Amino acid sequence: MTHTIKKVFAVIFMAIFGSVLLYNCEPDPDTLGEQLFLGDAAQGKVDSLDVIAFTIKNNDSIRSDAAKLDSAVLGAFKEDQFGMQRASYLTQLRLSTYNPDFGANAVVDSVVLVMKPQYAVDSVKTTTNEDYIYPDGNVAAKKVVNTYPVRKFGKAKRTLNIKVYEVLDFLKGASDTVKSNQVFEYNTANIGSKTFDGNINSVTITKDSDNSSIFTSSAPGIRINLDKTLFQNKIIAKKGQPELQDPSNFIRHFRGLRIAVDENDGYLFKFSPNSMELIMYYKYDKPDNGSTTRTSANYAFVLGAGNAHIGQYEYDRSGSAYSTAALGNFNTGAAKLFAQGMGGPSIGIKLPDETINKLTQLYQNNKAAIISAKIRLYTDPVSWNNNYTKPREFTFLQKYRDLTKINPKTNQPVTVTNFTDDFLSLAGLSQFKIYQSNNLNKNPAYYDFTVTKSVKDILEKQDYNADKKASLYFRIDMGRFLNNIANTAFEGPKSTSNAFATSRAVFVGSDPSNKYKAQLRIIYGTK
Questions:
Q1: Tens-digit pLDDT profile for residues 98-125
Q2: 298-326: pLDDT as tens digits
Q3: In sequence order, what DSSP letters do the residues of 255-284 get, joined into one string?
Q4: Is 285 exposed, middle or buried (0-12, 13-18, 19+ CB in 10 A)?
Q5: Model-level pTM?
Q6: Whole-number Å distance between alpha carbons of 327 and 56
Q7: Of 402, 421, 433, 474, which has the fewest CB atoms closer than 10 Å, so is most exposed?
Q8: Of the candidates 143, 93, 88, which has an alpha carbon nearest to the alpha carbon of residue 113?
Q9: Could you tell me if 84 and 264 are in contact, meaning their C-beta atoms sit under 8 angstroms apart?
Q10: Element counts in the chain: helices (H) and strands (E)
């Protein structure tokens, strides 16, 4: 009868595998999985086995150049478990037209930098001023302001002092690799500042006389006024000179902007680097029928694609739980696991020999058919008992030594990092999920990471790479896999949002005394 179970399982494996494995939030198989256990042919059994769970230290550094920053992060946040994390942002700017003509006697009125953070669209607050006077010409008008809260991670009810600085170092090219802890020189006298209360707004101003539009902001954002004298000297005064005549000259003349906060505690928020705006408003003399009219104009700089964008991250781990914790390794698990985005620590999970031996005996002696295997991790109910949003996005990869691939320089097997075997085999199934999140609004939350095919391969493949069995481990990071340009599939195992993932959490590791310890949970069938 066991032979029959295996045969049935082989036939329907690909059709129902994703459903059987991925919707098991509890130990019992779901309705599709029950098809394997109809009547008295077999019974579904659940077992939990030990894993070696450890924290991977990434030295608080990650690649954070333009190729890695779909979003950018600004702010600072400090708590007891991980310490202080502060994010600044650097960007180049380019001219929208080269060798521009600003007209005769051009003088800058103002310069505005606009950042567009992620915000809660459904939480708008509208205020209307019917008696507004537009200052340029003292025009009677109506001003409507829509205000939205920015999406934050950290202590939401804090004020941040945002400051903008002129970068003095060349920021390299947009395609160059930059690490998040690389230092670039900047002028310490800021060229603009903003007291930010955590809310952004959009503004519409219309004339009272005919209801025509005077001003409409493009989207809700943070607007920071910059030093108009700097732009008068660096832009207007350079009209017709080499500095403004081609991109190469310009990015060495005006090397970029650094946006940072003063605080070391508060919150982190995300914004889109490619949607930022920098607009210079000015007036010039315009000849008109023999007379000269003082005319208003504006010039938009390019801050989006094609420029170097860099996330710059600082850490102060002193006094934190992470700074003194035992992190463990491939051979020794750790009682607590730490995972944090933006170059913070990751989690490693390895199946110890004892667990592999138990599975092998179960397979060989009991003729067990492994139906589901998941690595379950709980957030630590004591260390991570707080109101911070539980992580909702992870990347899950496998790493191992491949004896069939030798590095010619070291003459050693190559270490392969890739999507998991389950993902590579089953990603085409609509119901497949790499992991399942549970109890995100409770303490503790827990997560099930699917490793069924990896476990089955260890047990069932006679020609399985022996060194892979010994060296295989799984890596968990904050963030998500990024899609390709066509948005049809993941771009690759190294293309993730970890460089701008603000989430973090402490998990229970290989702690034998803790009922929430990290574990391998399997469902199998026997007769």
A1: 999 999 999 999 999 999 999 999 999 9
A2: 999 999 999 999 999 999 999 999 999 99
A3: --EEEEES-SSSEEEEE-GGG-EEEEEEEE
A4: middle
A5: 0.87
A6: 7
A7: 402
A8: 93
A9: yes
A10: 8, 29
